[in-house]
Amino acid sequence: MERATRETIMALESECIPPKMVADVLGSDPQDLRDMMREKPNPNGFNYVPVGNTFKIPKDAFIRWMGWD
After folding, report:
1. What count of other Cβ atoms lies within 10 Å of the Cβ of residue 62?
2. Which of 5, 26, 38, 60 is the most buried (most CB within 10 A)?
3. Whole-angstrom Cα distance, residue 25 to residue 27?
4. Using CA atoms, how far apart are residues 41 and 48, in angstroms rounded to an integer?
């Protein structure tokens, strides 16, 4: 899978962004991002929803947080 970019995230049809794509854009490791989300609520300032052992990151909230809107 190619590295996620602004364009790939903006083109997503899904309402949620996988943590790996967010980590690509932020330049971090996907597991580090997941670990931070487990340890602290909203560690990076964008909203996410824990669902079992995974996290759903709303596309619109992340786009606003990145200032892409």
Report:
1. 21
2. 26
3. 5
4. 9
Residue 52 in any domain: the answer is yes
Tens-place pLDDT, residues 1-43? 688 999 999 999 999 999 999 999 999 999 998 888 888 766 5
How many C-beta neighbours within 10 Å does residue 63 have?
Answer: 17
> Phi/psi class of residue 43: alpha, beta or left (left: φ > 0; alpha: ψ in -120 to 50)?
alpha
Within-domain flag for 1: no
Q: Is residue 23 part of a domain?
A: yes
* Residue 50 is assigned to a structural domain of this protein: yes
Q: Give the Cα separation of 16 and 6 in Å (integer).
A: 14
Beta bridge partners of residue 55, listed in sequence order: 50
CATH number of the domain bearing residue 44: 1.10.10
